[in-house]
Write a structure and sequence with these properties.
Low-confidence stretches: 183-192
Strand content: 25-35%
Largest sheet: 5 strands, antiparallel
Radius of gyration: 33 Å
Oligomer: single chain
Shape: elongated
Number of strands: 9
Number of helices: 6
Strand order of the largest sheet: 5-8-7-6-9
Order of helices and strands: HEHEEEEHEEEHEHH
Mean pLDDT: 82
Distance between the termini: 124 Å
Structural class: alpha+beta
Length: 264
């Protein structure tokens, strides 16, 4: 009877020791896991909003990425660790400022045709022009541009006076292709040596068609790749161009007239 009790006691002690060892092992591993999760690691995030269709080379060259230290447990699966991983790819989904940059937001450039970048009200429109109008050799797919135009309008009917007006026709549109970089697999060769294909909305396409057909002059203006901004909307005429920044007296002296004749 005594040996039976002793055996049970020894078994109970052994089980208690095993339980204690397992508890110590679990707590130790848990502490290590917590410490590992709380450890900070460098992560690439978007420094600004990155639209779908932006080339990886433009993202890297335009300094659209920045490094942040985040807890390991907060790192999203697939986050890239080196900008070179996306240099030869294209963003297939928008990436928002502060968001971690993951590989799944990018795809091979050769697989991304123009049609994949057109959704909703977006349209593709192609304009031919001279190298100066198109900034040939400067702009490339993924750039954002404005289109500036000059249009002459006759005010007062057929016998009225004709005035020239200059203004930005459309702002911040994406370059899809240029004559120097046609789409992979394209079969149609454009008739002009210099052309650019832009992604615009349907309403912007109407404005471009008008300035292209009826305008006296139009040109593409390249926007900054980082921290771009728009000034207030305005329109210029020869008179506003002549008088901008000049006092009334200066204009009167230049025209050789008195105040009564001043007015443009």
């Amino acid at each position: 009877m005594t040996s039976y009790r002793l055996r049970n006691i020894l078994i109970a002690v052994a089980l208690a020791l095993v339980a204690a060892l397992l508890t110590v092992f679990y707590v130790s591993n848990y502490k290590k896991s917590v410490a590992n999760d709380e450890e900070t690691v460098p992560v690439l995030v978007a420094a600004r909003d990155i639209p779908a269709g932006t080339l990886g080379s433009q993202i890297v060259g335009g300094k659209m990425l920045q490094t942040r230290e985040l807890a390991r447990k907060a790192v999203v699966p697939g986050t890239i660790s080196n900008p070179s991983q996306i240099r030869n790819q294209i963003a297939v989904e928008p990436i928002y400022a502060g968001e971690q940059v993951t590989a799944r937001r990018f795809g091979p450039i050769v697989q991304q045709g123009v049609r994949t970048q057109l959704k909703g009200t977006y349209r593709a429109i192609q304009l031919a022009g001279d190298p100066n109008q198109l900034l040939a050799g400067t702009i490339k797919p993924g750039d954002h541009v404005d289109v500036v135009g000059v249009l002459k309008v006759k005010l007062g009917g057929d016998t009225g006076k004709e005035y020239a007006f200059g203004r930005i026709v459309v702002r911040n549109v994406t370059v899809l292709q240029t004559s120097g970089q046609p789409e992979v697999g394209a079969r149609i060769v454009p008739g002009s040596d210099n052309w650019v294909m832009l992604r615009v909305t349907d309403s912007q396409a109407q404005k471009l068609a008008l300035i292209y057909k009826e305008g006296d002059y139009w040109s593409i203006a390249l926007r900054p790749s980082l921290n771009d901004a728009d000034g207030p909307s305005s329109v210029e005429t020869p008179w506003t161009l002549l008088t901008d920044g000049l006092s009334r007296a200066t204009i009167q002296r230049a025209l050789g007239v008195g105040g009564a004749a001043y007015g443009g």
